[in-house]
Amino acid sequence: MTVDRRDFLKYSTLAIAATSGMPGFLARAAAQAAAQPASGGKTLVVIQLTGGNDGLNTLVPSSNGAYYAARPNIAIPKKDVLTLTPDLGMHPALKPLMPLWDSGHLAWMENVGYPNPHRSHFASMAIWHTADPTQARAEGWIGRVAEKIGDPFCASNIGGTTPQALRASEFSLPSIGSVDSFQVKLPAGLDGAFERLLNLPRQGEADYLGRATRQMVANTQKVQANAAKYRPGAKYPEGRFGTNLQDAARLIAAGTGQRVLYVSLNGFDTHAGQRADQDELLGTLASGLAAFQTDLETQGLADRVIVMGFSEFGRRVAENASAGTDHGQGSVMFALGQGVRGGVHGDSPDLEDLEDGDIRYKQDFRGVYAGALTTWLGLNARDILGGDFAGPGWIA
Amino acid sequence: MSLNPLSRRLTLEDAAHLLRRTAFGATDAQIRALAGRDAREVARERLALDQQLAPGNPFDPAEAATPFAGVQLTRAAWLYELLYSPHPLREVLALTWSNHFVVGTDKVRNVPVLADYLNLLRRHAATTDFARFALEVAQSPAMLRYLDADRNRKGKPNENFSRELLELFTTGVGSYTEKDVQEGARALTGWTFRGGRGNRRFLEDSEFFFVSGQHDGGRKTYLGQSGNLSGEDVVRIAATHPATATFVARKLHRAFVADTPDEAAVATSAETFRRTKGNIQAVLEELLASDHFYARRGAIIRSPVAFIVGALRTLGQPRLEVKQVLNLAQTAGRMGQFLLQPDSVKGWDGGREWVGDTALLLRMQVAASLTLGQGAPGLETHPSDLALLGTERSPLAGVTDGLNPRQRLYLTLISPEFGLA
């Protein structure tokens, strides 16, 4: 999508209207932001399932007696499973994603993990965020994408706080809490003084805060200059996750230029009463993603966006006494979109050959990342991941 | 590095620094009252905490009609205490401990349980016995519920609390094995609480309860010690492990000295922790009287709560409308810090993690509402640069020339300098 001259004039007027009360440098920044052509590139949307999503109850080994033996209370009954293959099916709450499966645009990556798995939520999440199982690196893999592209605005989190995945060596990439409220409203008469305040020379953490504030002002202008273009093309479910996905669609439709967008869904730490909690979360996930996909199709953007989802680990194979599961190892990843090659990629875990009660992972998550980086975003995955990682051919 | 006592008497800027760290901020008069005093004496005095609460707190969670309202009122009542408490250091410490022994209102929504938890944090704010503190937290219904310890039974372990006890509350990652987590869970079996369960009984009291029939009394090996260990044994072993001293000392340095602590200084505090058998009061007294503490100015990025409370304490604790306090508690949440609800059991990482676009935008809105908005509180005196920025010579002089006092105040509150402590 490109912005023609007439559109540009229209949007830059809107942008200045949206920032009325602060002419001067903020409005100039708005006009400059609007003048930048929209990105015609492809976008990767990363979905984080926080807390350790149970992969076995997500992509269910419905022909496997060992699965039902290990989980007498919380297994998904075979009759409820949404059959995908003779041996595998989806959790029933994922039903909104069935049309995507049927059209070949939903992929499951089986049994994904990393060497020497860590059962701490935080250590494991950091490993997925930095793409570094040794935990030696502080910056995130998406932060490195931004450094490679050379634009701090090329990736954004949709939500309150920026995950480590989006940390660059000196900066966190933007976190957009909500597109509507993402604007600076400066009290009248303080324009020049605010600009002077931000431009004072500083050192240490004060310098960091000053730069972050200047960058925030620029980010809000980029978003507001274009966001009014969007008209929703689907009805999203209520709740924070749906709202965040809609904001992601809005940024894509507005052509704000991010190559990577990041959305999280919390609450997967299901030590007790797992069925109720996970069922609801997977329903939220599926209804949100289905609306997102419909919206993109309505906008004519479905060929430009793919979604890739992960969680920091799966759960133990056997349920615990609280009808929940404790921390385990490898799990499933998923991907969807017209650019995705649908199907199940990789072998299912062997539930009779476990490592301390956990499945043994078979695919390295960095191989899955590499597919998105190389084939979808057209970047050199080795530069970003620090090595060559083979993965499933999940990009069409 | 040893933590040498500060040799000079407190200067005005030393006093301002101390109050930024131990009281979220202060007025010019409060700062001047400490100038010229001995650092050790002042630290000792400030650490002599009592449990008296701020008078006239308008929020009573016991009046809540729903669990959700109970949480909102608990949060607002705490923010009120943070704003108006005569013992701000007690509240700084309670906030610090709530970010160490984390529980979350996503699972804990019982009003008396949350009140008991907060009182526990206040009672042990500057505890002389960290192991005792850890045990009381471990047996609090808030923690039993939050980390599923009440579901942990003989032969049917639930590892949630056992894991986080080691990873996040005591030794930290690297000092224990997966086997220790499993053995710890066995020892902790049988712990539960009675009363106050479920959404309908959110106003009912709860208490710790041991079900001996569900306790695994067999032999375990935990962090190198073997025997028929009980849950009490496991918490004590973890809390007195040498690695715990370092882990907790680093937390205290994060809270009081710098977002990026000096590891040699942490090691000194850890040694004091070990020598005094977990006497946090002694660790803090040494730290808050040291030249190291006074040398690290502007090294902590203020959290959302510290920003809000700091602004209002610097303005002389003006009275706010009830609704304004409720709104500020919500706003802190949208900036990333809902009281009693960190994002995860790890707590808030803090430091640069507080600096996001949305949080920065909201800081600007809060500052505007406190200075220029229609409901902006009236001020008895205009805060000095010393109170606002911790220095007698404002680095912002020149920027704010020609503006009226409230405009200057607004710009100062949104400056990077005010955003640091």
Number of strands of chain A: 12
> What proportion of the residues of chain A is helical, as a percent range?
25-40%
> Ranges of chain B with pLDDT <50 over ≥5 residues?
none
Give the SSE string of chain A. Answer: HHEEHEEHEHHEEHHHEHEEEEHH
Rg measurement of chain B, Å: 22 Å
* Multimerization status: heterodimer
Broad shape of chain B: globular
DSSP strand count of chain B: 4
Structural class of chain B: mainly alpha
Which ranges of chain A are low-confidence, i.e. pLDDT below 50, for 5 or more consecutive residues? 1-23
Average of per-residue pLDDT values of chain B: 96
The fraction of residues assigned to DSSP E strands of chain A is: 5-15%
Measured on Cα atoms, how large is the radius of gyration of chain A? 22 Å
Class of secondary structure makeup of chain A: alpha/beta
Percent of residues of chain B in beta strands?
A: under 5%
N-C termini distance of chain B: 23 Å
Describe the protein in words.
The complex is a heterodimer of chains A (396) and B (421). Chain A has helices spanning 5-18, 24-35, 65-70, 98-102, 121-130, 141-149, 191-199, 204-227, 240-254, 274-299, 365-376, 381-385; strands at 43-50, 59-60, 82-83, 89-90, 106-113, 155-158, 175-176, 260-266, 305-311, 331-336, 343-345, 363-364. Chain A has 396 residues and is α/β, with parallel strands linked by helices. In chain A, helix 1 crosses helix 8 (204-227). Chain A starts with a helix and ends in an 11-residue tail after the last helix. The model of chain A is unreliable at 1-23 (pLDDT under 50). In chain B, the strands form two sheets. Chain B has a two-stranded antiparallel ribbon. In chain B, a hairpin with a 2-residue loop joins strand 3 (220-222) and strand 4. Chain B is mainly alpha-helical. Chains A and B meet through helix 5, strand 7, helix 7 and helix 8 of A and helix 9, helix 18 and helix 20 of B.
